[in-house]
Amino acid sequence: MRRPDSIGGTDYAADRRKHRHRCVCCNRIVQSGERVVMCCITKGTKVAHVACTDRQHVPKASETTRDVVRLWGLEHQKACGWSVPELA
Fold it and tell me: Please, are residues 55 and 62 in contact by the beta-carbon 8 Å criterion?
């Protein structure tokens, strides 16, 4: 069985959600229809606007927000028992 993608880009839809997500970069509430990158973590999902993903997640660091969100997704997959060679 093939391992799923660690992150996915989509249009945000909050029609069936009890709460709204906040962007991990700019901390704004994500509105329905905005383009976002999402990843699963152990206790839910993390969301970042597509426009925010090219920013540095931490000042003076080389990692962008997309890199950090992808890492969180890979760590979750490893915790679920998938083989993740990117983390080795």
Answer: no
Quick one: pLDDT band at residue 1, thresholds 50, 70, 90? Answer: confident
Whether the Cβ atoms of residue 46 and residue 68 lie closer than 8 Å to each other? no
Alpha-carbon span 71 to 27, nearest angstrom: 19
Give the global pTM. 0.85
* CA gap 77, 24 in Å, rounded: 20
Instruction: Give the span between the Cα atoms of 76 and 19, in whole angstroms.
Output: 22
Residues ≥6 apart with Cβ < 8 Å to 10: 35, 36, 38
